[in-house]
Amino acid sequence: MILIAGVLAAPLAACGGDGDSASSGSGNSGDDKIVLGFSQVGAESGWRTANTKSIQDSAKEAGIELKFSDAQQKQENQIKAIRSFIQQKVDVIAFSPVVESGWDTVLKEAKDAGIPVILTDRAVDSPDTSLYKSFIGSDFVVEGERAGDWLVKEYAGKTEPVNIVELQGTTGSAPANDRKKGFADKIAAAPNLKIIASQTGDFTRAKGKEVMEAFLKAHSDIDVLYAHNDDMGLGAIEAIEGAGKKPGVDIKIITVDAVKDGMQALADGKINFIVECSPLLGPQLMELVKKVKAGEAVEARILTNETTFTQEQAKAALPTRQY
Ligand code: GYE
Question: What pTM did the predictor assign?
Answer without folding.
Answer: 0.90
